[in-house]
UniProtKB/TrEMBL annotation:
It comes from the Bacteria. It comes from Helicobacter fennelliae MRY12-0050. GO terms for molecular function: adenosylhomocysteine nucleosidase activity; methylthioadenosine nucleosidase activity. Residues 3-224 form the Nucleoside phosphorylase domain. The keyword Signal does not apply. Pfam families: PNP_UDP_1. GO terms for cellular component: cytosol. The keyword Lipoprotein does not apply. Pathway: Amino-acid biosynthesis; L-methionine biosynthesis via salvage pathway; S-methyl-5-thio-alpha-D-ribose 1-phosphate from S-methyl-5'-thioadenosine (hydrolase route): step 1/2. Coiled coil: none annotated. This is adenosylhomocysteine nucleosidase. It is an enzyme of class 3 (hydrolase). Keywords: Amino-acid biosynthesis, Hydrolase, Methionine biosynthesis. GO terms for biological process: L-methionine salvage from methylthioadenosine; L-methionine salvage from S-adenosylmethionine; nucleoside catabolic process.
Length: 229
């Protein structure tokens, strides 16, 4: 089996490089992919760089160039609906909160011939839930809203909540969802909260990026162990 693991930032993939020891570096499309051999499984690990475009390119490259059969995103997010720093969440479906062609009568987040929400893979999500149960971790589940914006105000946060009922915001998940959905590859998105997407979000993000990224990576490593068992 070939599995792709994506983070947005270097800090989000560094914990994996410590969890899996040997790796080969491959450069492709102005990005570095780490090839890891782990228990008869091939893993490609990369950080995409921030934002939906980069993440879509990385997911597509993993699928088309490196033949990944499953894609797992691991990283951090801004928490809505009371989620706190360090909480772990699974995206059941993803949307793009910054898509707006409502001038033509379309709902917010909708692109013709696509859909507002894209669901993540139920089998991978079931594995995530099993890992959470086995490890005694509370795994939050719900809509994750992605956009090319770092959300750092109560007003914007409330707006995203009102229109998409999201439990978290980040900047890549929905684009990985679109790429995987278009190319027919199962995916799931795990995130640990680094901030509350409010006025203090930038300070909280800087403080908790590494620790929250590690929480997500350690969880995803347990998922990999279950997937390949
Ligand atoms: N990733 C982590 N925190 C975020 C925030 N507040 N907005 C967007 N992406 C994030």
């Amino acid at each position: 089996m070939i599995i792709g693991i994506i983070g947005a930032m270097n800090e989000e993939i560094q914990p994996f490089l410590k969890l899996f020891d040997t790796h080969e570096k491959i450069e492709f499309g102005k990005n570095v992919y780490y090839r890891i051999s782990y228990n008869n499984t091939e893993i490609y690990l990369a950080y995409s760089k921030i934002g939906k475009v980069h993440a879509a390119i990385t997911a597509s490259s993993m699928i088309l160039q490196f033949k990944c059969e499953k894609i797992i995103f691991s990283g951090v997010a801004g928490g809505l609906q009371g989620l706190k720093v360090g909480d772990l969440l699974l995206a059941t479906k993803l949307c793009q909160h910054d898509v707006d062609i409502s001038a033509f009568g379309h709902p917010l987040g909708f692109i013709p011939e696509s859909q507002v929400f894209i669901e993540s893979d139920s089998s991978l999500n079931a594995i995530a839930k099993e890992v959470a149960k086995d490890s005694g971790i509370h795994l939050y589940e719900g809509v994750v809203a992605s956009g090319d914006q770092f959300i750092h105000s109560i007003e914007k946060k409330q707006w995203i909540l009102k229109h998409f009922n999201a439990i978290a915001v980040e900047m890549e998940g929905a684009s990985v969802a679109v790429a995987c959905d278009c190319l027919g590859v199962p995916f799931c998105i795990l995130r640990s909260i680094s901030d509350s997407a409010d006025g203090e979000a930038d300070v909280s993000f800087d403080e908790f990026l590494e620790s929250s990224a590690k929480i997500s990576a350690q969880f995803v490593k347990k998922m990999i162990d279950k997937i390949i068992k």
